[in-house]
Amino acid sequence: MRELIDDGVTGFLVDSLDAAVDAIARIDQIDLAACRAAVSERFTVEWMADRYLGLYREILG
User: Fold this and answer.
1) What are the sequence ranges of the domains in the chain?
2) Per residue in 26-41, pLDDT tens?
3) Which of 3, 23, 49, 51 supports an S-S bond with 12, CB 3.0-4.6 Å?
4) 3-class DSSP state of 58
5) Sign (positive/negative) of CA torsion 21, 22, 27, 28?
6) What is the DSSP letter of 1?
7) Residues whose CB is less than 8 angstroms from the CB of residue 7 and which lie 6 or more positions away in sequence, other chains included
8) Which of 35, 17, 15, 39 has the alpha carbon at shortest distance from 27?
9) pLDDT tens track of the chain, all 61 residues?
10) How far is CA 29 from the centre of its chain?
11) Which residues of 22-56 are buried (b: 16+ CB within 10 A; e: fewer)?
């Protein structure tokens, strides 16, 4: 999930249920503007299309 989440900025990366529960208590630390900026930067239509094309090329060999 590191390619999707900037730990402590756009979400929290956790490795257990207890850590997830603790992260929920810190949700107010997440900056919504930073989340929107990350989505705009990482998940444009062009970016998604390039990723899908790359995956298809890899599958087809």
Assistant:
1) 17-60
2) 999 999 999 999 888 8
3) 23
4) helix
5) positive
6) -
7) 13
8) 35
9) 787 888 989 999 999 999 999 999 999 999 999 999 988 888 888 988 998 999 999 999 8
10) 16
11) ebeeeeeeeeeeeeeebeeeeeeeeeeeeeeeeee
Mean pLDDT of all residues belonging to the chain: 91
Q: Which residues contact 42 (CB under 8 A, 6 or more apart)?
A: 4
C-alpha 42: how far from chain center: 9
Concatenated DSSP letters for 2-56?
A: TTT--BTTTB---SSHHHHHHHHHTGGGS-HHHHHHHHHHH--HHHHHHHHHHHH
CA 18-19-21 angle, to 5 degrees, is: 65
- The CA–CA distances, whole Å, from 32 to 42, 49, 58 equal 15, 25, 35
